[in-house]
Amino acid sequence: MKQPRALVIGSGPGGLTAAAALHRRGWSVTVLERVASLAPAGAAISLAANAQRALDAVGVGDAVRALAAWEGSRGLRTPGGRWLSRTDAAAVAERFGGGIALVHRAGLAELLAARLPDGALRTGARAEVVDPGGPDRPALVGVPDGALEAELVVAADGIASAARRVLFPGHPGPAYAGFTTWRLVLPGRPAAFEPHETWGRGQLWGSQPLADGRVYAYATAAVPEGRHAPDGELAELRRRFAGWHDPIPAVLAAAEPGQVLHHDVHWLAEPLPAFHRGRVALLGDAAHAMTPNLGQGGNQAIEDGVVLAHHAAADPAAVPDALERYTRDRLPRTRTVALRSARAGRLIHLTGPFAVRTRNTLVRAGGLLAPRLVLRGLDGIADWRPPPGDGADPGGPYASPAQTAP
Hints:
FAD/NAD(P)-binding domain, 23% strand, 33% helix
């Protein structure tokens, strides 16, 4: 029997997970990445227990845990330094069957790429869906030197997905979420600190240590779309956050302008009617871009990759039917996560003084009465497990739409 062929457009966490999972199940896989080097820009990714279990299904879960800086012992603070709540790693692990691991995206990409055969990853290769294919014909993908046919195309080409526009030309695309974000990774740690996220009026700052001694910091602010600081984004961060509690001033003092990444946050406020058409499946931000407030964007993309491979492997000759099942599995779950994340973003970015005081009082009361209350935001999300037979914990429940109701 001819080995089925899959083309994966994009080498983010979801695309590489899908490629590794398909290869593991006997597919011939080629990953087409438009950039010249597989070197994700300086940012980290937070992997909750659901993503770690999905990575177990492609054989890299333990390696990710070995790389990880665990951010389970952390808390929420006010700009003046007052703790609103604290959550320890043991509570996270007990509730969800595993902690939350912070890893650099480059490290995760290297682990996933190592699961692919030599030559499977092609960088500097722009790709576009020319024909999504159908039951009686393969999909067709255009590349700089011609066109490629495949039984399956996985479009993991990000929030500005060209494949999504081809499959669903009438969809309005991403909408501005109402806030912008900055991220940076410092090469060294100014001083020891407890991981934290700090909520102010329409602004947020987070400082998280990485396992290799670096610091990952991120910030958001409710501002009009498209705003840029005339004197640079580091200067803007210092104006906004230098007066906040330690270690924020030290992190900002140690940062260099070239280390700051800045972009407005967009999400698919209007869901897609499906995550597929013909023989093309959309994955990750291409299918369900969400705000970063639950830290689940990359996690859901990783889940997508494992579930897609699970369905595609059942009958490689019937890919369109497999993609129907993929959509039925993934669209309700990811939509629920996206809506919950958007609600969290609106709560975090409140600007009215009374609303902010009320929010902080409720968060602090919940943290004092029962620290586990603050973990409820990930209930039905972080406890997900891969489909039976696809992970290290096959006896666990496989998430259905009912498990992730808002």
